[in-house]
Specification:
Strand content: 5-15%
Radius of gyration: 26 Å
Largest sheet: 3 strands, mixed
Number of domains: 2
Number of helices: 6
Number of strands: 3
Shape: elongated
Order of helices and strands: HHHEEHEHH
């Protein structure tokens, strides 16, 4: 049975963690980051854990910049942002840590429409023995 006096004490502990502004390193953050990814795996949210671990992140002062591949990942991680920050803030003992989600810029490669002959020439560049095989089998590319 919990006493009424137990609740304020627990709340004070949470407030202390949030107010704390201890210095931390990227290694500390990486440890907390990987621990939260494990929590997600344990909750059977493997996709989100993979997104966290595979996405590129950076740390500038107390702001974590996370670059994800697409907007759906921003939405999914945005839903977890408060829980994630609470976990990480508690682990690094710094209540000022923040998370900024951005979508990675993908430069679109120009579309190339190749003829069969163009594709064959590219393959021969990579594998010259292919031309020898074509001649032995007496194949025509027209």
């Amino acid at each position: 049975m919990a006493l009424a006096s137990d609740k304020p004490q627990a709340t004070e502990d949470v407030v202390e963690i949030i107010k704390a502004t201890d210095a931390f390193t990227e290694a500390d953050l990486r440890t907390a980051w990987e621990a939260y990814a494990q929590v997600l795996r344990d909750q059977n949210k493997v996709g989100l854990a993979a997104t966290m671990l595979q996405s590129k992140w950076s740390l500038v002062e107390q702001r974590i910049g996370l670059e994800v591949s697409n907007t759906s990942q921003v939405v999914m991680l945005g839903e977890l942002k408060l829980d994630m920050l609470q976990f990480i803030r508690a682990r690094v003992n710094n209540g000022q840590v923040d998370l900024e989600l951005t979508v990675m810029n993908h430069e679109a490669a120009p579309a190339e429409f190749l003829t069969s002959k163009d594709r064959y020439d590219r393959m021969v560049e990579r594998r010259p023995a292919l031309e020898t095989l074509r001649k032995r089998l007496d194949l025509d590319l027209s």
